[in-house]
Design brief:
Structural class: mainly alpha
Largest sheet: 2 strands, antiparallel
Strand order of the largest sheet: 1-2
Number of helices: 14
Strand content: under 5%
Order of helices and strands: HHHHHHHHHEEHHHHH
Shape: globular
Distance between the termini: 39 Å
Radius of gyration: 20 Å
Length: 364
C-alpha cells in the first residue's frame, strides 16, 4: 500500500507540474513583463535604428502595440520612424536592410498620419524591376542566408496586399523558393544558415560535436517566425499559400519533437547537450510561431500548447528585474557564440514581445 501511495503521489505531482507548465499567465502579468522589456530596451539602444537587429525589435514593438494599444509602444515606433525619415537601410538588394519597413507598413495601417511608404515602395520596386533571368546560373542570389526569410518576405507580401499589386507577392515567391531550394534540408525539416554550414566539400555536411548536422536555433527561428508574419498577411486564396503552410507545419513538428525538457531550444538544435542553457531569441521566435499557429488553426492546440507554454515560461524566467531579456546569443551565424544571463540584444527583446503579444490572443 505504501509503495502504491508513493507512486500515486509522484504521478499527481508530475501531472500537476505538467498542467502548471501549460497554464497561461494572467494577461496583466504578461503585459507588465512586456512593458518592462520595452522600457529597458528603449533606454538601452543598440545599432543603427534601421539595421536588421532593430527591424526585428520594432516588429515586436509593433505587435505589442497592435495587441495592447498602449501608447508607449506607438510613441516609440513613431519616434524611430521619424528619426529615420521612414527610410530603409542603404542596400536595396539586401533583405536585412528592408526589415524595418515591416513596422512602417503597420504604422500606416494604424493611422499614423506622418507615415511615408514611398521609400519602401522605391526599394521594393528596385528589386521587382531589376532585369535578370531567373534561369541564368550566374545571376545574383539575393536571399542566400536563411535569416533573410524573416527580413524580406513579410515586407513584400504585406505591401503587395496593401496596394493590391500582385508583383510584390510574385517577387517574394521567387526569392523565397530560391533560398528554400538552397538551404532547406528535406530530411531534417530544418534550414542550414547558409551554404557554409551545409557543405564541407564532396557533398559532406559540417557536423556538430555529436556528429549531427549543424542547424542554428535562431536561424530556424528567423524562418518559422517569418512564416508566421508572412502568412498572417497573405490572402487565404493566394495560389502559393499551401507551400508556406506546409513548410510552417513541417518545421513546427520538427521543432516540437526536439524541444528540450525545460522548453527552451539550445543554440544548436541537434546537439543540445553541448549547450547547457536555452537561448532566448531562437526560443522567442519559435514560441511566437507556435502560438500564432495555434491561434490560427494551423497547429493543433492540444498537441502544441504545452510546448509553447513551456517555452514561454522559460522566456519569462530569463527576464531580469530591470526588464532586460538575458540569455540572448550575440550576433553571429552559428551556434558557437557564447552567451550568459547578462547577454542581451535588441532582437531578443523583439522575439519576446512577439511571443508575448501572440500569447495575449490565446483563448482560455
Amino acid at each position: 500500500m505504501k509503495k502504491s501511495s508513493i507512486f500515486i503521489c509522484i504521478l499527481v505531482l508530475f501531472t500537476s507540474m505538467s498542467q502548471l507548465a501549460a497554464q497561461k499567465p494572467a494577461d496583466k502579468e504578461i503585459e507588465k513583463s512586456m512593458l518592462k522589456a520595452f522600457k529597458w530596451q528603449q533606454k538601452n539602444p543598440n545599432h543603427d535604428l534601421n539595421d536588421w537587429t532593430n527591424g526585428a525589435y520594432y516588429i515586436g514593438v509593433t505587435k505589442a502595440y497592435e495587441q495592447t494599444k498602449k501608447k508607449a509602444y506607438l510613441k516609440g515606433l513613431t519616434q524611430m520612424a521619424e528619426s529615420l525619415d521612414w527610410q530603409p537601410r542603404h542596400r536595396w538588394y539586401h533583405a536585412d536592410d528592408i526589415t524595418i519597413c515591416q513596422s512602417y507598413i503597420h504604422m500606416k495601417e494604424f493611422g499614423v498620419e506622418e507615415a511615408n511608404l514611398q521609400p519602401t515602395e522605391d526599394v521594393l520596386n528596385r528589386v521587382t524591376t531589376e532585369d535578370y533571368d531567373w534561369n541564368d546560373p550566374i545571376k545574383p542570389i539575393y536571399w542566400w542566408w536563411c535569416d533573410a526569410l524573416f527580413m524580406g518576405p513579410p515586407v513584400f507580401v504585406h505591401y503587395g496586399v496593401m496596394t493590391g499589386e500582385d508583383k510584390y507577392l510574385k517577387a517574394s515567391d521567387e526569392l523565397y523558393k530560391e533560398c528554400y531550394d538552397l538551404l532547406f534540408d528535406q530530411e531534417a525539416h530544418l534550414f542550414a544558415r547558409d551554404m557554409r554550414y551545409q557543405w564541407k566539400g564532396d557533398g559532406e555536411y559540417m557536423k556538430e560535436s555529436n556528429g549531427e548536422k549543424i542547424f542554428w536555433s535562431r536561424g530556424n527561428g528567423w524562418v518559422i517566425g517569418g512564416l508566421a508574419l508572412l502568412l498572417q498577411q497573405m490572402p487565404e486564396d493566394y495560389e502559393n499559400r499551401a507551400f508556406y503552410e506546409d513548410l510552417f507545419k513541417k518545421m513546427a513538428a520538427k521543432l516540437k519533437s526536439i524541444q528540450p525538457k525545460d522548453g527552451m531550444w539550445r543554440s544548436s538544435l541537434l546537439d543540445p547537450g553541448a549547450y547547457p542553457h536555452g537561448e532566448v531569441s531562437g526560443t522567442g521566435f519559435d514560441t511566437y510561431a507556435f502560438l500564432w499557429g495555434i491561434n490560427n488553426g494551423l497547429l493543433d492546440r492540444d498537441e502544441y500548447l504545452p510546448a509553447a507554454m513551456k517555452a514561454f515560461s522559460g522566456l519569462m524566467a530569463c527576464q531580469q528585474k530591470s526588464g532586460m531579456m538575458g540569455w540572448v546569443q550575440p550576433i553571429g551565424a552559428d551556434p558557437k557564440r557564447n552567451f550568459s544571463a547578462d547577454s542581451w540584444e535588441v532582437y531578443g527583446t523583439g522575439a519576446y514581445l512577439l511571443a508575448a503579444s501572440e500569447l495575449l490572443k490565446l483563448e482560455d
